[in-house]
Specification:
It contains 4 helices and 2 strands, in the order ααααββ. The chain is an all-alpha fold. The longest helix has 43 residues.
Length: 154
């Protein structure tokens, strides 16, 4: 009877959960694109009023902004790819210098990217408001850390 009860409360299979996550992510991306397009149109409309743009000028300005946006996105993609390549190259060179045990330790010591953005706090998945956060300094910031023994006045 316990086995039957356990299967009744079984979680969805990983493939189904992943498909559900992908569908939600696609919905979010589509909504974000729509909201972004609305924001960009509002900015362009405000700029057109402030600069007294003609309809032809407004179209040309929109084309310039669109071209700039695509160039910036391409530059960001190239920068990310270059950073990843440099990181992989550095790890390969360190692998030639360090032992496998040392490499394992190094990988454990290296910071996990974007971990700070996934910190769960009272306001949801947000990082600290500043270096002091809401309740004081976070480890590693150095602010508010106790001084090393023997370094203070005696």
């Amino acid at each position: 009877m316990l086995c039957a009860g356990g299967t009744a409360f079984a979680q969805t299979p990983p493939a189904a959960a992943h498909a559900n996550w992908q569908a939600k992510r696609q919905q979010w991306q589509q909504k974000w694109r729509q909201e972004r397009a609305k924001m960009e149109q509002k900015r362009l409309d405000r700029l057109a009023v402030l600069l007294d743009l003609t309809p032809a000028q407004k179209q040309q300005v929109q084309a310039v902004f669109s071209a700039e946006r695509s160039r910036v996105q391409q530059a960001i993609k190239q920068a990310v790819a270059a950073r990843r390549a440099a990181h992989a190259d550095a790890l390969a060179k360190l692998g030639q210098v360090l032992s496998p045990t040392q490499m394992t330790k190094l990988k454990l010591l290296m910071p996990k990217r974007h971990r700070r953005f996934m910190r769960r706090g009272p306001r949801g998945f947000h990082g600290p408001v500043g270096p002091m956060g809401k309740w004081g300094p976070h480890p590693g910031h150095g602010m508010g850390a106790p001084p090393p023994p023997g370094s203070g006045p005696q």
